[in-house]
Amino acid sequence: PRDWSSDVCSSDLFSQPFNAPPEVQATFKGGATIAVPQIGTITTSGFQLTLINPATQSSVAGNASWAAEGY
């Protein structure tokens, strides 16, 4: 897993591209409010990750860890 931190939304790039878009999992690690990781577009070279406050449905700053599995 890799750590991630952002103010709102971020695109993370994989260290090496995959042959097909991989399966990506993210876990909320902390921030000023509770948040749920929302994974957006996944490509062979990266993906978008946003932390969403479930009470307000708005994006928030925070930390998450993520892992990608594929070929």
Give a quick summary of the entry.
The protein has no helices and six strands. The chain is mainly β. The strands form two sheets. It has a three-stranded antiparallel sheet, with no helix packed on it. A three-stranded antiparallel sheet has the order 2-5-4, with no helix packed on it.
Which helices and strands appear, and what pairs or packs with what?
Elements: E1 2-6, E2 9-13, E3 23-30, E4 36-42, E5 46-52, E6 62-69
Antiparallel strand pairs: 1-6, 2-5, 3-6, 4-5
List its salient traits.
71 residues; mainly beta; 3-stranded antiparallel β-sheet; 6 strands; 0% helix; 56% strand; elongated
Can you give a write-up of this model?
By secondary structure, the chain is mainly β. Helices cover about 0% and strands about 55% of the residues. The protein contains no helices and six strands. The strands form two sheets. A three-stranded antiparallel β-sheet has the order 1-6-3, with no helix packed on it. The chain has a three-stranded antiparallel β-sheet with strand order 2-5-4, with no helix packed on it.
